[in-house]
Every structure is written in structure tokens, then in C-alpha cells.
Amino acid sequence: MIKQTMKLHNIIHLAIEYLKRYKRRYLFLFAALSFGFSIVTVITSQKEGMSRNVSVSSQGHYSGDMLIIFYDRGYNGPPTGSSPIQHIKKETIDIVKESIKEAEINPSVEKLRTVRFMGITLFYNGAAANLKYLVGMDWNNEKEYMGALGAEEYFSTDTLDDNTIIISSPIAKQLGIKTGDGILVEVENIHGQKDTANLIVGGIVNDDSVFGYYKSYISRTRLNKLIGFGEGDCSVIGLIFNSKYKIEEKMRQLQSVIEKKITFMPLSYTWDSFDDILYREYLDEGYKGFILTPDIFLKDVNTILQALNILTYFLYLMMLLIIFVSASVTYRLIIHERTKEIGTMRVIGFHESDVRLILIIETIVLASLSIVTGFALSLLFNWVLSYMSFSWMPGFSMFLKDGRLQALFDPIDTIVNVVAIYILLFAAIFIPVFTASRSPLPEMLSGNIKE
Q: Taking CA 196 as the corner, what is the angle to CA 233 and CA 220, rounded to the nearest 5 degrees?
């Protein structure tokens, strides 16, 4: 056992010495591996960051990782045949909160929001701008979200009340609005009538994404009053979790508890299934609830992400192929140049397995150094990318954080990248190493090895 350990130690030492001796010949391979690994890491980290930013943006826009929504066709008599409105009554909210505790799904944050879609206009100094969303929120429970929006002009959530409104910078620029200005907000209520409110601009947020461009925020109690909801009502209950792991399982847990107390529709995981349930089967009348995730509403965005994933995988495979070809060609040349030396090693008593082990250890050490260097280069490349502005690309801001690309290093992706490099290298050296260790000695000593 001691003899074997000493032999392995000597082989490792010899492999490192050979790597030092032939460092100039290995330099190209080292550069190719380092650069290739850095590009592969940049690709995966940027893809993960873009996906994460879309997820965070949609989480904020749709109120959470899991949504409880009730569609109501019978509240104070909306017109027959009209689309149902999103409305959760105060007594239903209490049932939902009680069910969340019973299901033991343990969300980190629970949000109540009232959301009005369309029929919203802002007026200022004779100019008008239509909004797609007017969101009513509880200011004290939304400090983290408001702080993450990115203020165009400084504001504090402590100063926000029922008489203030937060608007997005594109709308502010369109109307020439500044913080502190008074504006008129016109909203269509649930009866189809127009209601108005004079509000003070409490802040302007720098949000020009598809989620925030035509969106403004006021207090939930004020919006409830404007559209005809009860004071404690809302449109959606959003749950945020510290981890998205097993979200669908948590949805099933909550569904099994809550459907015993109030009418809930079957769980939907795609837009098509949700659309079928909502408009074709179950909502001809009445008041029924859904448990959903934001992904339901991101059909078009998910299509873009799928296209992005395909492009990413293509670039990823191309880089791996380049790494493989570079390693294979370079290693064949290096082994060919060392043919006489390897033959001499066998003449003085090295077994074939010893020769192979020396060459493999050289490769492992070289790959490890290349991976460390490549990761350092990826940090540099990602840092450079983070300072590049992509604001000129319409709609691209939903993939960005504060208008910049943000790399996110996923441990699993990093491990896969490292393993991929080692597998490619072993595949590239397999034939040259076995050929060099098993070729006839006369051919090796003469330098006329045949592959």
C-alpha cells in the first residue's frame, strides 16, 4: 500500500514536471481551453440572469410566485355577457388566509392588490395618457417591491398615502410630470361609469419594460373606492416564497384545503388550459377562484425565452465543439512530438498504464488551471457586459436589471460546464494517449509512430 502510494506520488510529480517542461507547447491549448470555458460560462450565466430578471419582473407585476384570483360575474351586476372581473371579497380573503395556514405552504410574503385593467386615463395640463394597468397596493407591505423598481426621482414609501400616485418615467416624460405635481386620474368602475380622483405624484419610477411602461400605482383602499369594491376587497392575493422549489406541489396542497371551503376551479399550468376553463366551461355565472403562477400569463414571453434557450444551447454546443477540435488537434501534435521520449520511458521500465496515467494527469492539471483562469475571465467579460447599455432595444428591458445585463452563476450550470470540459478533454486525448502507450517500441524510438 505504501509502495503504491509512493509510486502514485512520483507519477504525479513527474506529470507536473513534464507539464512545466512543455509549457510552451501546451500554451495554445491552455489559452483555447481558458477562453472557451470563459465563453461557455458567460453564455450560461447571462442566460440564467436574463431568465431570473424576467421571473423577478413578472413576480412583481403579477404579485407573487403563486396567485389566488377570483373571477366574479355577479358583483353589483356587471352587464350580462361581459367579461368577469377579478374581485376577491373581504370574507373570501379571510378564508384564503386561513387555508394558507392550514396547508402549511409557508409563504415569506402575502400581498393583497387591486388591479384595474384598461379604461384608465391620466390628465395633466391639458394633456392625457392612457394606462393599461392601475395597481392598488398596501404601501407598507410593498416597500421592498417599490424600492426595487428604480426611482427616476427619489421618493419614500413612508410619505405615500391615499392621495398619492406613483407613475412610470415614460408616462411622466410624455406628460411633462414631476414629483409633487397634481394630476387627475379617470377610471372606469365596475358599473361601466367614469370616476375621477385628484392625486399628487409621490414618485416616478424608471420602468420602461413591457410590465411597467403603461402602469401606475395608488393605494389599494383608494382604488377600491374608485372602482366600486368594498374597502377590504382586492383583485389578487399574491404569495412569495423564498424558493420556487416545488411550487406546483404547494399549489396542490393549497387547492386540497381551500376547495373544501369555497368553489375553486381545477389547477391550470398553461395558458390554453386556463383560457378553456375561464371562458368556455365554468364562468357563465357565479364567483369562482383559481390558483395560478405568473407563467400562465407569460405565453409570449415564454416563447421568447424558449427561442433564447435554443440560441444559447446552439452557441454552447458550438463552443464545446471548438474546444474539442482544438484540444484534439493540439494534443495529437504534442504527443507526436514526444514519441521518442515516451518510448524511452517504456524502455527504462515504465508500464503502459504508467505512461497513460502520466499523460492523463498532465491533462487534468492543465484542464484545472484552464478552468480557474476561464472562470476569472468570465467574471471580467460579465463585468464588461454589465456596463453596456441595451436601452436602445425596445422591450429588452424585461431581461435586464436597472437597464443592464446581470450574470447569475447557477451552481448546477457551473458544475455541468466543468464536467463538460473534462469529458471533452478525455475524449480528445483518448486515442493519442492509448496509441502512444501501446505502439511498438522500435517505431516510437525511431519517431515513426503510426496512428
A: 25
- The three-state DSSP-derived secondary structure of 59-128 is HHHHCCCEEEEEEECCCCCCCCCCCCEECECHHHHHHHHHHHHHHCCCCCEEEEEEEEEEEEEEEECCEE
pLDDT digits (tens, 9 = 90+) for 179-216: 889 999 999 888 888 889 999 998 888 766 666 677 88
Minimal CA–CA distance to 217: which of 298, 125, 143, 290? Answer: 143
Instruction: Name which of 213, 202, 221, 206 is nearest 148 in CA terms.
Output: 206
Structure confidence by residue, pLDDT tens digits, 273-297: 776 666 655 555 567 788 888 777 7
- Grid coordinates of 282: 365554468
Q: Are 158 and 147 in contact (CB under 8 A)?
A: no
C-beta atoms surrounding 253 within 10 Å: 17
**How remote is the C-alpha of 53 from its chain's centroid?**
5
* Residue 335 CA neighbour count, 13 Å, CB half: 28
d(C-alpha 371, C-alpha 385), whole Å: 20
CA atoms of 253 and 101, how far apart (whole Å): 11
Q: Which helix (H) or strand (E) holds 288?
A: strand 287-292
Rounded to 5 degrees, φ, ψ at 448 are -110, 45
The pair phi, psi for residue 335, each rounded to 5°, is -65, -40
Residue ranges with strand state E in 138-286? 151-153, 164-168, 182-188, 194-205, 215-219, 236-240
Q: Quick check: 31 and 304 in contact, CB under 8 A?
A: no
- Between strands 66-72 and 287-292, the pairing is antiparallel
Per DSSP, the residues of 385-431 read: HHTS--TTSTTGGGG-BTTB------HHHHHHHHHHHHHHHHHHHHH
Q: Which of 296, 255, 300, 238 is nearest to 112 (CA)?
A: 238
